[in-house]
Amino acid sequence: MNMGQCKHLLVDGWNIIHADSYLNRVFDAGRGMRASQDMLAKKLSFVHDANGMRITIVYDGRGDKISIEPIGNSLYFTEVYTPSFMTADELIEQLCANSKHPETLLVASGDNMIRLTSGGFEVLSISPKTLLDMANAGASSISHYCHSNKAANILKWRRIKMQESPFAELDDLAEELRAVERAIEEKIRLSKKQKRKIELFKGKNIIMSSPVKSKTRTTFKELSALGDAFFRSGGKSKKR
């Protein structure tokens, strides 16, 4: 059987958690069952994202019905809880037995009985170590892709920066940004012009209403009146 054909990964949740030293330590450290489940889901998200596989993590549950809870926003990455009368092992076996395309299933568990049973239905199985190795490989693959994509984008922007405009390859967006810049520049120019007019108008009003100027005008009138009086009575002043 070829693992490359596998499209749906069935994970024996608690078996994988207890088989991994780190996940088991999270479980035993008092952080709770939910913390270890979240950590497993985080690790398997790299398998989901890098390999494009549908992942179903099966846990022993409670209640009368099977409960399906999506992880994140993906309908193809879920946690499934069994009814109280069924174990996770039994549900995985039933899924293998009833699959129309068993060659597309992949079971991850450290339980030899599950792996033997799934093999009887022509379903490929892997160990907890192999599963977590897949998760680490997926994380490395995604990290490498992100770094490569980042480097390609940096190189692209450096080339654009050497051109006339940093927005030369952005077409409509560049034009819209330029239009906004022109509108802002015009608004600033009009604002400065209006401010200068207001300051000039205020300056004229201050001069016209200045008490010093009013006093100066009064003084000239008084001097003029005194001068006229002096010349009219000039001779009399000399006689004195």
What does this structure look like?
By secondary structure, the chain is α/β, with parallel strands linked by helices. The protein folds into two domains: 3-138, Rossmann fold (3-Layer(aba) Sandwich); 163-228. It contains nine helices and six strands; from the N terminus they run E-H-H-H-E-E-E-H-E-H-E-H-H-H-H. Strands 3-4-2-1-5-6 form a six-stranded mixed β-sheet, sandwiched between helices. The longest helix has 37 residues, at 172-208. It is elongated, with a radius of gyration of 43 Å. Mean pLDDT is 80; it is low at 213-218.
Look up the CATH topology of the largest domain: Rossmann fold
The arrangement of helices and strands along the chain is EHHHEEEHEHEHHHH
Amino- and carboxy-terminal Cα gap: 143 Å
Report helical residue fraction.
Answer: 55-70%
Shape: elongated
Q: What's the CATH class label of the largest domain?
A: Alpha Beta
Q: Strand count, sense and closure of the main sheet? A: 6 strands, mixed
Strand order of the largest sheet: 3-4-2-1-5-6
Short description:
65% of the residues lie in helices and 11% in strands. The chain has 240 residues and is of the alpha/beta class.
Topology:
Layout (H helix, E strand, L loop, with lengths): L7 E5 H7 L1 H11 L1 H19 L2 E6 L7 E4 L6 E5 L6 H11 L6 E4 L3 H9 L3 E3 L1 H34 L10 H37 L2 H22 L1 H6 L1
Structural descriptors:
240 residues, alpha/beta, Rossmann fold, 2 domains, 6-stranded mixed beta sheet, 65% helix
